[in-house]
């Protein structure tokens, strides 16, 4: 039932594009605003909803994972290329905002990593085999 995963992805994509167009119209621009991002959020929400209700067969889940793994990098690469071209044409304000966004993301990730608790006593590393040469060196 991998085809159901593809159908779920296609449904989320079409709904995301539609909602992105509506958002663009609401903001007064004549373009899709975040349609692909909305589609991915819908796909994640639908998958989690179906998993919690236990109505998502394993093969369908594999189909969603497969297409999600392919879909996200391709769309991100396409969007990044378009955004970069638009930013370079838009002037220094667009480039400055992009650099600022990257710096803020890096700072937030760094803060999250520093706030994690570290284990006081890590688990011992298992010994796979005894090496007589290492025993003699000690």
Automatic annotation (TrEMBL):
The chain crosses the membrane at residues 34-50, 62-81, 93-112. Keywords: Membrane, Transmembrane, Transmembrane helix. InterPro entries: Maln_transptMadL. The keyword Acetylation does not apply. It holds the Pfam family MadL. The keyword Transmembrane helix applies. It comes from the Bacteria. This is Malonate transporter subunit MadL. It comes from Ramlibacter alkalitolerans. The lineage of its organism: Bacteria, Pseudomonadati, Pseudomonadota, Betaproteobacteria, Burkholderiales.
């Amino acid at each position: 039932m991998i085809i159901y995963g593809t159908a779920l992805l296609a449904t989320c994509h079409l709904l995301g594009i539609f909602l992105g167009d509506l958002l663009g119209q609401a903001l007064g621009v004549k373009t899709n605003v975040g349609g692909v991002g909305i589609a991915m959020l819908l796909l994640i929400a639908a998958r989690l909803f179906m998993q919690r209700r236990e109505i998502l067969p394993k093969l369908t889940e594999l189909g969603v994972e497969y297409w999600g793994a392919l879909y996200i990098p391709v769309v991100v690469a396409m969007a990044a290329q378009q955004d970069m071209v638009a930013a370079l044409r838009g002037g220094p304000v667009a480039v400055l905002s992009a650099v600022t966004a990257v710096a803020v993301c890096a700072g937030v990730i760094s803060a999250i990593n520093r706030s994690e608790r570290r284990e006081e006593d890590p688990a011992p590393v298992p010994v796979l085999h005894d090496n007589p040469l290492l025993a003699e060196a000690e």
